[in-house]
Specification:
The chain is an alpha+beta fold. The protein has three domains: 15-78, no CATH class; 94-185, Pdz3 Domain; 195-347 and 363-413, 2-enoyl-CoA Hydratase, Chain A, domain 1, CATH 3.90.226.10. The chain contains 13 helices and 19 strands. The protein has helices at 15-22, 24-36, 43-56, 65-77, 86-91, 94-99, 127-131, 152-159, 216-231, 250-259, 298-306, 320-332, 402-413; strands at residues 82-84, 100-101, 105-109, 117-122, 138-142, 145-146, 161-162, 166-172, 180-185, 195-201, 204-209, 237-241, 266-271, 279-282, 308-313, 335-338, 346-352, 358-367, 383-384.
Length: 414
């Protein structure tokens, strides 16, 4: 006898979700992630993130469902992984980069927690410099868009545009009651040097590395070479400033570390899911970026390898910069001064998708020569210093930079 019927009600499937999951673009992304992402993951979790995102986004949003879904899936990985749209990839092409202009600012994320972008330094002679922008100014808005709604990369992109176009910045300056307005015209700007150096006392030099590019190892050599004739004294002490350095190209990271250690020394290891992601990097030419230094530079390299070394760090010292810090702490007994570093220990790779888009995935973990990982936990300095008031000093200024003063005092006292 039939006593009743059981009806199961199922929510109607979202056709956008079904279309995305069945698409070749989604399958390509999932396969790339399965083959390359540093840690195993549940594909069903990626699909769930896609479904949740499609349910939550406004249907008027112009971004296609597949883009929404890949962004949501990438966000579930956390870390530095990201989706790069075809438009963003096109902007990175050499042709577009060569046509782009800017106002000449070196910037970093502000440490105060308000979400501002902080000016580290305007380039001498640039529109920003001529307009009167100063180190420590906090960019409040760019052409009316609040910087607290932008990542540092998005803020940097917003500053760029066609030469001759206008740009309006509102900045918060220490001592000013209201944001100050600056109107500038974009101009072609020469690539910002990744290295700065200056003598700070007889036998002691300050060396700042702001990012790791193909040219950075040779920039370091050139910068120290220029200091030595002015100093007339052997380079005995060196302050290496890696504050607010987010890293850069892996081979360049290895190349800079190689300048400070004997040839063949192990400077870094990587471990990932692909076989080619598992390797050791040593201080040998085939393992670092750019051209090897010339024999005429050997005195400079010898000085870098023998000088007593202090490294300045802060909570924006990240990724490849952290690798250099930990390597030189282990291999050169460098003393680290500042605040705990950011804690990003992954290697990122940009992998192409369909339609000109791409994803940046964490494809390997970095380890120091002794097998130490700083991912998530960061690197604790040997000498702790409180975070400075960034509105009142310029990195590398002997008169106002308390971190530099502490490093020099440590070296001179030895």
């Amino acid at each position: 006898m039939v006593v009743g019927l059981l009806f199961v009600s199922q929510a109607r499937a979202d056709p956008r979700y079904e279309e995305v999951i069945a698409s070749s673009a989604w399958k390509t992304f999932v396969k790339l992630a399965q083959d390359n992402y540093v840690s195993p993951f549940d594909v069903h979790a990626l699909e769930a993130s896609c479904k949740n995102r499609l349910q939550s986004v406004d249907t008027s949003v112009k971004e296609r469902p597949i883009e929404n879904c890949i962004r949501a899936a990438i966000e579930s990985f956390g870390g530095s992984s990201a989706y790069i749209s075809s438009k963003e990839m096109a902007q990175k092409s050499p042709e577009n980069v060569s046509r782009m202009a800017g106002v000449g600012l070196e910037m970093k994320a502000h440490e105060g927690g308000e979400g501002y972008v902080e000016i580290v330094s305007p380039i001498a002679g640039s529109p920003a410099h001529r307009a009167g922008l100063k180190p420590g100014d906090l960019v409040y808005s760019i052409n009316g868009v609040l910087t607290r709604s932008l990542t540092l990369a998005q803020a940097a992109a917003a500053l760029r545009g066609e030469a001759g176009t206008s740009l309006t910045l509102l900045v918060v300056r220490h001592g000013s009651k209201a944001p100050l307005g600056f109107v500038m015209t974009r101009e072609p700007i020469a690539p910002l040097a990744s290295v700065r150096a200056r003598p700070v006392s007889p036998g002691t030099a300050y060396l700042r590395v702001g990012r790791f590019r193909d040219t950075t190892p040779n920039e370091v050599i050139a910068a120290i070479s220029k200091l030595r004739p002015a100093d007339r004294i052997a380079l005995n002490n060196l302050v290496l400033d890696l504050r607010s350095c987010y890293g850069g190209l892996l081979n360049s990271v290895v190349g800079v570390a190689a300048l400070f250690v004997p040839s063949e020394t192990k400077v870094l290891s990587s471990k990932g899911r692909r076989q080619d992601a598992n390797r050791d990097f040593r201080a040998v030419p085939q393992d670092y970026a750019g051209k090897p230094w010339d024999p005429v530079d050997e005195p400079v390299v010898s000085a870098l390898r023998s000088a007593r070394l202090v490294i300045l760090v802060d909570d924006h010292t990240a990724a490849g910069a952290e690798a250099v810090v930990q390597t030189l702490r282990e291999q050169r007994k460098a003393v680290v001064i500042g605040q705990a570093t950011f804690g990003a220990g992954t290697i990122e790779t940009i992998l192409p998708l369909e339609d000109g888009a791409a994803v940046r995935l964490s494809t390997a973990m970095m380890y120091s020569p002794a097998g130490h990982s700083w991912d998530r936990g960061g690197i604790q300095p040997d000498i702790q210093m409180p975070a400075p008031d960034n509105l009142k000093f310029e990195l590398g200024d002997p008169g106002t930079d308390a971190g530099l003063a502490r490093a020099v005092a440590f070296l001179v006292a030895k």
